Records
---
Amino acid sequence: MMGGAPTNVWNDSINMGGTNNGIPGGFTMNVNDGSLNNTMDTTDVTLINNNTVNFEAQPQQQPQTDDVNQSAKRVHRVENFSSSQINNTVDTHMPLLQLNNPNGAILRSYYELSTNDVLNLPPIPTDEEYCARLNVSNNLLPLYDKSALQAARFAELALGALANNQVPLALELSNSSVMCLRNCVSTEETSGMVSLFNVARAYLLHGIFRSFRGDMARYFKYRRVCMTHIMQMNNESGVESLLAAISFHDAWAYLMHNAAEDSLPDIDDSLPRLNTSTNGGSTYSSMIATDPINQMWMQGSPRVFLNNEATPISRSLDAIACAIRTCCDQANCQFVDNAKAAESEVPGILSLSHGNGNGGEQFPGVSPTTSAVLANENELCSRNMVLSAKSLLDQDSGMSNGTIKKHGLYMVSSVMSAFLENGEMEEPQEG
């Protein structure tokens, strides 16, 4: 599932005349209201064009919590609507969220095997576990927190149903996740970073769901919404797992778009970048989220891997993502060199085979990833990244006494190792 190119693309951008909230800062969202059916997703959040946003966090400074909280809420605010059929769908599928529901357990198994066996996001706590952490009774669980938990659970089930080719059910579960996220902006109360983590997780999984359905524009939009939440969670427990998962899925997108950022969907008008300024490779989550080079996909040095405080699994996943980007960059550089060599023999071949459609070259310069690797080649070359990833996996296996085997990550690291070994070219012999 993670490695295959999406084949089933559908259009769900139905315009039903949503209104502008007039929200300060210019962030608005609109729900395309419509009836739910088995072939079309009609209730997803749509980010619409509006005024530009001045998002001016100063370099090396942490975002102001109050301002960022409000901005994050504005990003995923949705309009009120009265589609009772959609609300009924949420109620219909709510039993699937129970751990003792056999159908829900099957969908979670498909999600674990197809997606999370590689991404390794932490388990979503049960309501009882969550309430124990907050030291409150179940009936006093805040609406924001309860909705965040439900949104993340529905997002997992949607990916599980998609993996099992239950597409109509997957779309309904995805819609249910969106409806739960809607509740997260209908209240000002939140219990803190744990609830923000689950909202960020839900948006990321929803974006991955979109990408598997072939809608990469929505993936990049939901990814950015996810980042607005991550930027508030400076090295909170588990945040590195989100960043590593984003990094790995970004590497998949990096391959699909052949490392050409100019070919990516333009989402900046609907959801402006979270730019601050270059921050010297900081491993703080807010600095990673707001770094200009990471706005569309992760670039540069593998910062989760370089963070010794992160878990071995997250560091391993980020190392593999960096190796994938590096291999893609190297292949493109070799292609450019070959095309330039052929240019002398067949004039025009470079522009015909390597142009971006605008008269320029698709890869005019060195990517931030390649620049970082060249500056620290002994540590960050793709071969050493894969070896480090495997060592970290072995370290994690030792910590768990081998009881928790990361089969997906082991498979990916083994494939990358074989690819690099078979792809190495012998050095030319002198003399």
---
Amino acid sequence: YQQAMQILADCAATGRVAEDAEILWLISIREKLRYKKDFTASDDLRNALRNSLGIELHEKEKRWATPDGRQGLIPMFSDLA
């Protein structure tokens, strides 16, 4: 969680655009927090994704989207080994 928040802070501070692999990793960290029922941390990470990178998580559709048009699927709990 701390490493994820640091990556988000670094991207926000430098204006660097996160790569798809980084986005997927960040979202998988959030999903693991949700699985562990750490909803405070998962909500903080969701808000940081939105505020730092503009990434919107569409929970009902299980997908994410960036302001530049990239998108992907949010992993299912069963996919998070």
---
Amino acid sequence: VVVQRDNVVEQVNVAAVVVGDVVTVSTGAKIPADGLLIKGNDLKVDESSLTGESDAIRKNADKPFMFSGCTVTEGDGVFVVTAVGKNSEWGKILTE
């Protein structure tokens, strides 16, 4: 996973992603944590594993929420991590 921490871009293991990291994703990437979109370029995400919605969701200022476990189907984007692991939406479902 490509993250930016303290203005340094680095590659980290998905388990090392923490709240506050700025993550870059592109087509085919699995979203590693929940977050808020900072910028996107024609970004669409398959959220069917979480919501059951079969259509890919276009991410923008009106729909900025990124969810762990979902897959980027088109475009690329950058988001700030707001929750990881059991605190993510997917994690909450798994621990219920």
---
Amino acid sequence: GKCKRGQACTFAHGDREVQPQPEFYHTQLCADFLRSGGCKSGSACSYAHCPQELRRAKMHKSSKRSGSKKVADSEVSWEVRRLEM
């Protein structure tokens, strides 16, 4: 079938329309760990449990965009500054 939303649709309708997504693994601190000192997910948690685990977001190799990387860099810096307070 055809999408009823036409040009206003925000979803991809095939491989050519899929946009690369940044990898956000360990780019933000774990709220549970910060709040309680522990995390139920343990090593499987996708969030960092200390400033040393924080890293910059990376775009998938197929992408040449850098806009979201700049945002992620500032978010990592903000998280580290917040921990140091």
